[in-house]
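User: Hey, my collaborator sent me this sequence without any context and asked if I could get a structure. I don't really work with proteins. Can you help?
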Amino acid sequence: MRFVFSMSANDFSGGVMEMLSSFLMSYGILMLCLIAGSCMLSSLIYTLMQEYERRENRLLDITLTDFKSTLLQNLAKMVKATFFFLGVFILCMIIFGLRIAVSPWTMVLTIPLLLIGCFIVFIPLSLFSPLYIFEDQPFSVALKRSCKYGFSAWGEIFLVLLVFGLLGSIISTVTMMPWYI
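Assistant: No problem. I've predicted the 3D structure and written it out in structure-token form, which is a compact way to encode the shape of the chain:
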């Protein structure tokens, strides 16, 4: 007990800052690995889908050298799209933080509006990656088309994403059940 009370404010804040920086570094590295893995997996899946449509014998006897150039092009497109969406996310968080800095009471209005806005906008943007990779279009054209098609078929896209999300969650729960017991 004496040890706790004998610590100065500088000792406590230094320990907390060290722990906080360690925490942020660990999760920062985790998020970078998650983003890199997601980009690589998505580009591999889209590349294999393109090769499946392009080749006469589909994916039979395919090697990495057969689709390496397409994979690298798709990976570059996915990285570009990921950095764009990461920039949009950071911009939204800056705006959100500035609104909270003005007055903490604005959180009561800002949080629900931000969540509803993200919910409405990110459903159409889920079409961006397939449009950008499968159709050889510039970035801005694919973004406009994803918004155009996404907002016109918002309900259908939402239902498809909901059903596949539920199916993925159920399959994940069933397959992970032995580790939970």
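In plain terms: The CA atoms of residues 160 and 166 lie 10 Å apart. You can pass these tokens on to your collaborator as they are.
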